[in-house]
Amino acid sequence: MDNTFKLDRIPKELKLIFALLEDRTPSIGIDIDWELFQTLSIHHRVFPLLHAKVKQVADRFPVRLLQWFERRYKQNTFKMLRLSAEMECISNLFLAQNIKTLFLKGPVLAQDLYGDLSLRTSSDLDFLIPIEHLPQAEELLVCEGYEKDDYIETVLNDWRWRHHHVTYVHPEKGIKVEIHWRLHPGPGKEPRFHELWERRKKSVLTSSPVYLLGREDLFVFLVAHGARHGWSRLRWLVDIRQMMEMEMDWKRVCQLFFTYHHPHLGGQAIRLASCLLDAKVTGEMNPLLTKRSVKLANQAIFYLEDMINLHTDPVPKDVSSYHARHLFALMSFNQKVLHVLCLLHPLPEDTDTLPLPKSLHFLYFPLRPLLWGWRKTRKNEISRGLS
């Protein structure tokens, strides 16, 4: 591991996971907390990969731990097979209606990166479609038995750029799918769908056509996704390491980062994968390895010092504050300006604070600072009253 990173607060159980994933012969002390080791392997979603690693040095691990890994590995394999079958059905359903569909993660990613769908976990199916086909796609899913799981509140049609997906759940199959019309939540610049479609890749996992992002687009997507979540799950960095070892047009990757994100975002991921997982860094990656990427990579170590879960509310206040600052630090100057400007755009809570007829919703723009200040004052008054 790179000694420029401050890893002293990372649990020794997680360092053991690093060693196993790097294919290093682990040095295992008698003070290892095996329950924590199991919990961390679940939290970071790397237990399918660890299953094979611990079997290679089985004499170093408790028998019950080996049995636990075997059970979890089989359970995950069955789940991924079910998701794969559902993915193929959805792809066929949509393509039959001329809805071009790009699967972002799930079984296709496991197959593409690891050559085996059982070596990666996935909780749902994420796919990207052109926004103009969203109503038709939602209707098709409902006809298949899916139920909408979340409803987006919006003012002045901001859902198109502020959000990026909507979730559906099949109550009988127990499968969740996310329909994306953007790769990431806005505001932000992204490749147009037709560009991504032209560079698409056909999966070898299924007999009928299922498509995913082209390799360079996939790398940039996975980096931006992992960075947005603070690399709080090791699985995302393992994916990056896998891709760093694959044949890739790095000039194209750099161009995509300079156009849609910023080079330091790619550099952060590369440095973390190199430091923590011994990923090989080549000269082609140098344009992304800025000084700022070192600082951002160090900041991301915070998310590995504890089992931080950004997906389940409530997120602890100190973690939420740190994450907000880190996300802002990840932005380019132009992105920061756009982010600040978007704070002036009306939010659903403004309509709750001061209901206005739809024809007068444009007034929320000049009124937003006043409404925000009023809510802040009321919140402070309530807090003082409760204390």
Class per helix and strand makeup = alpha+beta
What can be said about the biggest beta sheet?
5 strands, mixed
Quaternary structure of the protein: single chain
Q: Taking all residues together, what is the mean pLDDT?
A: 90
Please mark out the parts with pLDDT under 50 across 5 or more consecutive residues, or reply none: none
Shape: globular
Strand proportion, as a percent range, falls in 5-15%
- Topology as H/E string? HHHHEHEHEHEEHEEHHHHHHHHH
Q: What is the count of helical runs?
A: 17
Extended strand count: 7
N→C terminal distance: 47 Å
Summarize this entry quickly.
The chain has 387 residues and is an alpha+beta fold.
Molecular structure report:
It is a single chain. By secondary structure, this protein is α+β, with helices and mostly antiparallel strands. Among the domains are: 214-342, no CATH class; 346-386. It is 53% helix and 6% strand. The chain has helices at residues 12-21, 34-43, 47-56, 63-96, 107-114, 134-143, 159-162, 193-198, 215-228, 234-244, 250-260, 263-277, 291-300, 317-330, 333-342, 348-353, 364-386, and strands at residues 102-103, 125-128, 147-148, 165-170, 175-180, 201-202, 211-212. The strands form 2 sheets. A 5-stranded mixed sheet has the order 1-2-5-4-3. Helix 9 packs across helix 11. It is globular, with a radius of gyration of 22 Å. The model has no long low-confidence stretch (mean pLDDT 90).
